[in-house]
Design brief:
- This is DUF2795 domain-containing protein.
- Residues 58-100 are annotated as: Disordered.
- Residues 69-100 have a biased composition (Basic and acidic residues).
- Pfam families: DUF2795 (PF11387).
- The protein has 100 residues and is mostly helical.
- It has one domain.
- It is built from 6 helices and no strands.
- Helix 2 (22-31) runs antiparallel to helix 3.
Length: 100
């Protein structure tokens, strides 16, 4: 995870009471002004209890690189890579079977 992204997460989780589970972390980030992309990324955390912002950052570091890179570029549309892939495959299938 990029250092700037880590600092950004820390600002949203400032004053967070630990241990905290994923939903508590997302809720706190929203209350601190976390945008949809940040909250979407936090929702991808494994549903477990975290003891510190460092544990949250570490868990986010284990999330697929594509989603983190999309977030850092500001282009995450909220869909996981496999969802994009499935939708693209469906569209290709429909195009190849259409009778024009």
């Amino acid at each position: 995870m990029a250092k700037a992204d880590s600092m950004n997460i820390e600002s949203y989780l400032k004053d967070m009471k630990y241990p905290a589970n994923r939903e508590e972390i997302v809720k706190h980030a929203q209350q601190q002004g976390g945008d949809d992309q940040m909250c979407s990324m936090l929702r991808q955390l494994p549903n477990q209890h975290y003891r510190s912002v460092n544990e949250v950052s570490k868990a986010l570091g284990n999330i697929s690189g594509g989603n983190r890179a999309d977030y850092e570029r500001g282009s995450n549309d909220g869909r996981a890579d496999h969802e994009r892939s499935n939708n693209d495959s469906r569209a290709d299938h429909e195009r190849s079977h259409s009778h024009n």
